[in-house]
Amino acid sequence: MTTASAPVRPTPPTRRPVAGTDRRTGVAALGCAVLSAGVGTTQLLFPQDTLAAIEPRTRGLLVATAVVLWTLPLLHARLASAARGPWGARVASAGAVLLGAGMVSSAVNGEDLAFFPAVATVANALWFLGSVALAVSLWRAGRVPRPVAALLVLVMPCTIFLSQMGGGILAGAYLASLGLLLLRGQLDARRA
Q1: Which phi and psi angles does 39 have, rounded to 5°?
Q2: What separation in angstroms does the CA of 178 have from each of 18, 112, 192?
Q3: Roughly what angle, to the nearest 10 degrees, separates helices 116-141 and 56-80?
Q4: Cα–Cα distance between 121 and 102 in angstroms, integer?
Q5: Is pLDDT above 50 for 14?
Q6: From CA 157, how far away is CA 170, in angstroms rounded?
Q7: pLDDT per position as a tens digit, 44-63
Q8: Percentage of residues of the chain with pLDDT beyond 90
Q9: HSE-up of 47 (CA within 13 Å, CB side)?
């Protein structure tokens, strides 16, 4: 015996509201983007590596960059929630926080302290290797847009190694894109 039933209409996809955490993380990413782009623009126009002493403008740039670095763990944690595992985010965050602390110590003292080169080497390695691990984990999980995963590894080299050429502008563009995706609730491919 068969029974006839009315055809089932698919329900249109509804846009899920942005969670409070994504909203805060998106705002933080946009704040980092503004700071990063500002630092990148300033360094492009006024290169700072010509003097051993740290002048007032450079102190401001160091503090602004440290704020960006200290906010990255929030972004890394959110990305880790879409990755296969949290380790890359933890390692990258440890490096970013350590480097930020070194930058602030240089800004406060007016020069790099004797231990700064060693700290910076370890911090940069942690940040970069952790970013690569997080990017690979995000790519394999397939839960975020591929460019988010692929371009994550460029934030560190743009911020540090390409800083005098305005690399902060590129890092800021990535962070702005990430912030907008979070604010729109479009970071997770499952939700989009």
Answers
A1: -65, -45
A2: 14, 32, 14
A3: 30
A4: 11
A5: no
A6: 10
A7: 998 776 666 788 899 999 99
A8: 77
A9: 7
Residues in the chain, overall count: 192
Question: For residue range 18-29, what is the model confidence (pLDDT) as tens digits?
Answer: 678 899 999 999
What one-character-per-residue DSSP string does 138-184 give? HHHHT-S-HHHHHHHTTHHHHHTTTGGGTHHHHHHHHHHHHHHHHHT
- The SS3 call for residue 185 is coil
Whole-number pLDDT of residue 133: 98
Task: Single out the residue of 110, 95, 97 nearest to residue 60, CA to CA.
Answer: 110
Tokens of 105: 């110590």
* Structure-token pair, residue 136: 């690979």
H or E stretch covering 5: none
Domain ranges of the chain: 19-46+165-192, 83-141
Q: Which two tokens stand for residue 138?
A: 């995000």
